[in-house]
Each structure stands twice: as C-alpha cells, then as structure tokens.
Amino acid sequence: MKQNEETILVTRSSIPDLYEYIDEIKSIWETHWLTNMGEKHKKLEYELKKYLKVDNITLFTNGHLALENILAGLNLKGEVITTPFTFASTTHAIVRNGLTPVFCDINKEDYTIDVSKIEKLITDKTCAIVPVHVYGNICNVKEIDNIAKKYNLKVIYDAAHAFGVKINGKSVANFGDASMFSFHATKVFNTIEGGAVCYKNSKLEKTLNDIKNFGITGPETVEYIGGNAKMNEFQAAMGICNLRHLNVEIEKRRKVVEKYNYRLKNVKGIKLNKIPSNIETNYAYFPVIFDGYKLSRDEVFEKLKEHNIIARKYFYPLTNSHKCYKERFKCEETPIAEYISDRVLTLPLYADLDLKIVDKICDIILE
Length: 367
Ligand SMILES: *Cc1c(COP(=O)(O)O)cnc(C)c1O
Fold this sequence. Notes:
Blueprint: H1 18-25, H2 28-31, H3 39-52, E1 57-60, H4 63-73, E2 79-82, H5 88-95, E3 100-103, E4 126-130, H6 141-151, E5 154-158, E6 166-167, E7 170-171, E8 178-182, E9 195-199, H7 204-211, E10 216-218, E11 221-222, H8 233-264, E12 270-272, E13 279-280, E14 287-290, H9 297-306, H10 335-341, E15 344-346, H11 355-366
Parallel strand pairs: 2-3, 2-4, 4-5, 5-8
Antiparallel strand pairs: 1-9, 6-7, 6-13, 8-9, 10-11, 12-14, 14-15
Helix pairs in contact: 1-8, 3-8, 4-5, 4-7, 8-11
C-alpha cells in the first residue's frame, strides 16, 4: 500500500454540524427522558411521515430488527420467497422468524427479483414475498402486487437502500403490505443505528410498538414474546438533524454519480447502473459490473486497494452461500445472482466525496 495516500472508504457517514445536534439534544437534559418513545422519537416519526408521504410508520433501533419485527407482527408461517443478492440481514430476518426462505433469481438489468420466476416457486406453504430494492433500484412493484393478490401473499419490501426514492412521483414506502428502511450510519439517511417500517394496515401500529418493547401491553400485562428493538432519543435526535440536510446531501451524491457515469460510460466490459426516467433516485450506491473488461472485478478491487481506495464486493457472496446456510441452500439455483455477484464492485460514494478523488478512482480503473 502506498503510505502517502489517504484512505478512501466505500462510504462516509453524513453528520450534522455539532452545535446543531447539541441544540437538538439540549432538552433531554431537562427531561432526563432517554428512550421509550419520548419527544424526539415522536418528532422524528412525524417528520418521516411527511418526508416519506406515508400514514403509518414505526421506528426501530435498527433496520434488521425492523424487518424481523414486521415479519413477526404479520404472524407469518411457512415459506417466504426472496432473493439472495442482498445483505445477510434479509435472509436472517426470515430464518430467525422460523420461516423458510425460498430463493428466486434476480434479473440482469437492475438486480431486483425476477418477477417471471416467482410463480414457479409458490407452494401451498408460501405466505409472503420479501423482495429487495437493491441499490435503490425499485422492484417491479406492479407485477409483484398482481402475483401477491392472485395467491393471497403478503409483500414486505426490504427497502433498506431506497429511502426517499420515488417512482412516477409516488413514494417507494407505499408499496406492498410493508417496507423496511435502514437508518444505519452507512445509509443515505442515518440515525447512527436505526430503522423503520412503513405499512398499509394501521392496526399494525399497536402490534409493532408492543413487540418492540418486550410484548408489554399494559402495566401488568405481557401479551407477546417480544424483544427489545426501541430507537432511543439520541438516535432520533440525530435523525431529526440529518433529515433537515438530506436533500442537499442527495444532490451532492448526484454530482459524484454523474462524474462516475461520465468517466466510465461506453467502456467495453463495464456495465453501469441505469436509472429509469420515472425514478427519482437517492444515489445510494454506485455498482459497476466488470464483465469482459480487461481486468476482472477482483483485479480492479486489488488495484484500487493498492492506492488505499477500498471499494466493496457488494453483494458477494450471495446469502444462500453464506457459511451458515451452506448445507441448506445452493447458489447454483440462482445463476444470474451468482453471475452478478462474481462481477460486481460498488465504488466509493458519499456526499462529501471530492470529485478529484472520483477522477482518480476512474483513472486507476481505466489506466
Ligand atoms: C443495511 C441493510 C439491512 C440492515 O439494516 P441495519 O439498519 O444495518 O440493521 C438490511 N437489508 C439491507 C439490504 C441492507 O443494506
């Protein structure tokens, strides 16, 4: 590694001005209310409902537990159709609920679930579909909705990457029965750690608030075997601050993405992520597929690393080939996902990424 070059990581968390955050948390020193759905929690919920244009939202301590808890809250049993081209969390949330994941392949264009392959996987045990809006690319929500209606299945989107994305002007949070968002430090919008679920059926609000708090429903009543997945006041305060600046941050991300696109487009063997014109994206990730390029994905990864630039093989390996699932599933059953996973590299992308660094990254890839 070259010593004189600063390390560039794949992402860097957005944080507000220190004094803005101090101002937001000041009242906590008067109330001494640190967690359990306090003022900040209520305020963030309210702000997020406005931002995402949804009627129902419940906050969680992280995105993973948001997904685990909505699957529990919907009281699902049996098989769940999902994709392996995702973060370990999606598959874990299904398995940790005692459900069986059934892996559907992805499509080659935007890496979301291939809707033409869903129906073949449906059995009398299937209860739900958990598709992933991977990289903020939106699944074929219309066709998924048709299939779900036809077979009476629930649809819960892993929308961890898709915060704020709109399709034909409509917020992505409004599709399916529910959508999970992650507010982890590495995501476009963060609450340090955090997450939320948006959902259609307003009756779920009480259920979710109960199961994220040990299943406690009254001073002397515990109705569910719930866990603890509450978002605390400091997380919520960070969210309130970050949300104020989100549109500016997304705009800065756009400039980075445009620079990458300009430098890397029309290069033989390099495939870039296309954003359809009806999608208002959040520029969450910059995935590049190296397929027939003079260097393999792994060679590009190593070459960048020599310059202290740490890209990520995101998503590699597939969840159905993680060590913990190896005996149970086969990645050969999802050949397109396997193909993409072997060739994809996500390049550094964050709001404050200097465009000169973007140029340098492209120079290294292209030289
Ligand atoms: C980040 C992420 C999660 C988990 O969210 P956390 O907030 O980190 O718990 C789930 N699914 C996907 C696709 C993610 O990228």
